[in-house]
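Project standup — Tuesday

K.O.: blocked on the structure for the chain from last sprint. Re-posting the sequence here as requested.
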Amino acid sequence: MLIPDSKRKELNILFTIIHEETQSLQYLAQLQAVSKRTVKEDLAKLNETADQLLGIDSLITANHRGDITINKKHKKQALLYFYQIKLHYFEDSPKFRLLLQLIIQYQVSKDDLLDKLFISDSYLYKLVRQLNTDLKPYAIFVANDRDGYRLAGDEISLRLFAYVILTDTYQGMKWPFPQLSLAELERRIPNDLLTHAHTRSNNKKHYLFLLYMIIEVRFEGQRYLMPPETPDLSTFMEQFETNLDVGYLFYENFLPKIPEIALKTEITFFNFLGRIFVADLIPASAQLTMGQKLMRSENPLSQQITQGLIRLQKELPLHLSREQQASYTYYLAIFYGMFLILGERTGTYAQLMIPQPNFYLETETKRQQQITAVLTDCFKTSQPDRAPALAQFLASLLASLLRSNRTSALKIYVHVAKDFTASYVIKERLAALFNPKQIVVTTDYEQAHLIVTDNLERAESGKRIFYLDSINNETAWRKLCSLIKDLCLEQLQQSN
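H.V.: unblocked you, prediction finished:
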């Protein structure tokens, strides 16, 4: 979108190699739907960029079998190099540079744009037309008049778009707002937001500061959020504010002064959407309390979520504790509200990111289809036009939540004869490293999925053999732990 497809493919190839450690040329070609020759050319370009930009020689290497991997001496810093190369590609893109100027300033004159971007009048016209095509799915566009160029359209979508672009592109490596330094901004930010700053990563603080600046720029242009579309949605969102108000940014005149009615709307939206985009501001205890409050709420939207979850528990059935019910209600309510605010654009913001995250399950399971059917029926009256899309969106979220609760015990049989104390040590160490509900040391050979031994054991169907020659062999222990994790994941996949 903001960089050429060729650069996006290069970045995807690099991330795949970093993430999956070793890959074949054939696999990378299939993944990007290009020829092996193209992949070879992309790898050469990436190495050239790493050399020229970062002074790194041979970032990507290939062995005699053709396996492609990150050079051993660069593996520890490989992810940092990925994001540095990505930022370079974006900053090298005229379209991104144009968009950036329109994000960090409310309005920019034509002369300033031509001067800062080093482009001609005709090329600016071309870039604006291309950018408007890219922005259309997000209900925003580049407007221009005698005063200059600015971003316009749906205000909440515009802010979310700017936030996603800046956080994903910069990753805390650079600060894009020249009008205010990070040090000065930190002095402005309310103490309530910085009280636990030491417990947050630098990136999390950077994201919060970016959000502050985006809001400030929009306020300077007197662009405020419109109130929620319906009274039910308004009272639904206000429940989150009364549960825990995190709208510190809007108090004590840290932001430009705005009309009182607009301020109320801004605080309501920040308290609601902040639970997604700056979620670490909300303690887990407050999330649970909010879920319990929603389950008792008389708000129609809250009741739709609660009744939908009750139906799912009866018809699937789902076996949830009271605490799980509250947590599921909390997450479903937030995403229901987000869908009502943004509509079917809700899932499109992830497409702006490189690498693109996948918030949904790759394949729709039978259970997910059942959840979708129940939720479609639940919402067909309240959301007749959007019930199928809404149900599918929430069903994917719920299916992911249910996967987190699934457990499947892996049974391990220990048969170590050469060391008298080994069996005891192995059992104790496994108990210290893994959840005893998931990893069970059994005395029944027939029930075991994994056999740990220092003898010759013949593999049987459904059983894996691991040879542990010594309890002091740390390399073997690492391999054993890795195997146990892999087997646990296989168990969970099979129970899906």
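K.O.: great, moving the ticket to review. The two ends are 35 Å apart (CA to CA). The chain has a mean pLDDT of 86.
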